Amino acid sequence: MRIVLLGAPGSGKGTQSQRLVQKLGIPQISSGDLLRAALARGTPLGLQAKAAMDAGRLVDDSIVLGMIRERLSEPDARAGFILDGFPRNLAQAQALKEMLTSLGQPLDAVVQLEVDYRELVPRISGRRSCADCGRVCNVLTAAQACDPAEPCPKTGKPHRLVQRPDDNEATVTERLRVYDEQTRPLVEYYRSRGLLRSIDAQGDPDEVTRRLTAALSPARSLG
Ligand code: AMP
């Protein structure tokens, strides 16, 4: 299956993508993770992206599209993929369509994760991820509490929890503004192409996973 998860920062795209990876056996392709990895390696493109990321703005399409094109051409993406955080604007959606058309692999579904805006800031400011395995948890919300006793599958030791530098309140406000202005129009874009499914992404993450799986099941039985 080829899926896009669409939703505001903090709507749970990363968490739900990780769960779909387990269920469907296809990779999560997160443009944010690709950018952070490029930055951590100190590549010229990563360093170019840094200022926009720190400010909560979108990184240039040319940088993001290059990374996504490369990632989609890796062998594990042939069986399908979950795009998380990409596309983020109409130009990226158009470019994705062209890329997938040329590969003969059109999208099966786009799922919009709907969350009340008032829930997003606490969700994001409490968010932590393990520096070793990438598992995401939350120190503020009970629904996805970080369990100090849980061992990291990579190291066997407790998770090393870190906070993303752009998960502070000022940057989050800008990221939400950018989402409204540039990414929200994709809801209509995909609706008009018959690809959009919307789910309520609030509450227990297990329940959200069930809604997500149900939303995907018509596309799964087709392909
Ligand atoms: P995320 O991990 O998806 O929240 O992304 C973190 C940051 O990376 C965003 O605030 C942007 O600065 C940048 N970014 C991630 N994905 C994209 C994208 N598709 N287009 C442009 N910038 C992106």
Just give the CATH class of the largest domain. Answer: Alpha Beta
Largest sheet: 5 strands, parallel
Instruction: Write down how many β-strands occur, each being a DSSP E stretch of 2 or more residues.
Output: 8
> Which architecture of the largest domain would the CATH scheme give at its second level?
3-Layer(aba) Sandwich
Determine the CATH topology of the largest domain.
Rossmann fold
Order of strands in the sheet with most strands: 2-3-1-4-8
Return residue spans where pLDDT drops below 50 for at least 5 consecutive residues.
Answer: none
Helix tally? 9
- Rounded mean pLDDT is 93
Structural class: alpha/beta
Number of domains: 2
Looking at this structure, what is the CATH superfamily of the largest domain? P-loop containing nucleotide triphosphate hydrolases
Helix content: 40-55%
Could you explain how this protein is built, in words?
- With 223 residues, this protein is α/β, with parallel strands linked by helices.
- It folds into 2 domains: 2-116 and 168-222, P-loop containing nucleotide triphosphate hydrolases (Rossmann fold, 3-Layer(aba) Sandwich); 127-162, no CATH class.
- The protein contains 9 helices and 8 strands.
- The protein has helices at residues 13-24, 31-41, 44-55, 61-72, 90-103, 117-125, 169-183, 185-192, 205-222; strands spanning 2-6, 28-30, 81-84, 109-114, 127-130, 136-138, 161-162, 196-200.
- A 5-stranded parallel sheet has the order 2-3-1-4-8, with helices on both faces. Strands 6-5-7 form a 3-stranded antiparallel sheet.
- A hairpin with a 5-residue loop joins strand 5 and strand 6 (136-138).
- Helix 2 (31-41) crosses helix 3.
- It is globular.
- The mean pLDDT is 93.
- Bound molecules: adenosine monophosphate (AMP).
